[in-house]
């Protein structure tokens, strides 16, 4: 990764901000990381990495904990704060939560749950039409692209193949939640997400493996073709 410098040889403010965004994204994806690992992944010097981390810490966007490994100096593991998560791009706001609160006050909680269920059903239909047909991996890859376009930091990984060499198992990860503010007030939407993925991939079983709502650093789903 290359970074342009200004005439004086110092990195421009724009590039500094871009590097900080890269650092926040990487920590979000990994959950926690060291300065050495960041320097290697981002291809910048350890000194520059530590400077960026110090500045991010001063802004309250990251924090670290010391881990002792044998004799010698402790190793520092860096994690994102809630403020750091909010600094990354997302596609949600307070309006949705305010609207649901108003709906609950005027029509009752049952109506809110009915609206949320209708929403995931509509979303599942929309996803299924856009994903179309193809192998399971092709459909998951298209699903990941759609989720990324909506603000989710999504990716998938291959797991086992069957005896005929067909890829049957995948892990789908989402390292942030584009509807986190809604999920905090109405955690039932997390259950709807699982139902939605099952509806999108009707020939598969879908199980939750990780959950941001339970203080894990990502949401994860095991997707497996049914025999």
Automatic annotation (TrEMBL):
<protein>
    <submittedName>
        <fullName>Iron-sulfur cluster biosynthesis transcriptional regulator SufR</fullName>
    </submittedName>
</protein>
<dbReference type="InterPro" id="IPR036388">
    <property type="entry name" value="WH-like_DNA-bd_sf"/>
</dbReference>
<dbReference type="InterPro" id="IPR014075">
    <property type="entry name" value="SUF_FeS_clus_asmb_SufR_cyano"/>
</dbReference>
<dbReference type="InterPro" id="IPR011991">
    <property type="entry name" value="ArsR-like_HTH"/>
</dbReference>
<dbReference type="InterPro" id="IPR036390">
    <property type="entry name" value="WH_DNA-bd_sf"/>
</dbReference>
<dbReference type="Pfam" id="PF13412">
    <property type="entry name" value="HTH_24"/>
</dbReference>
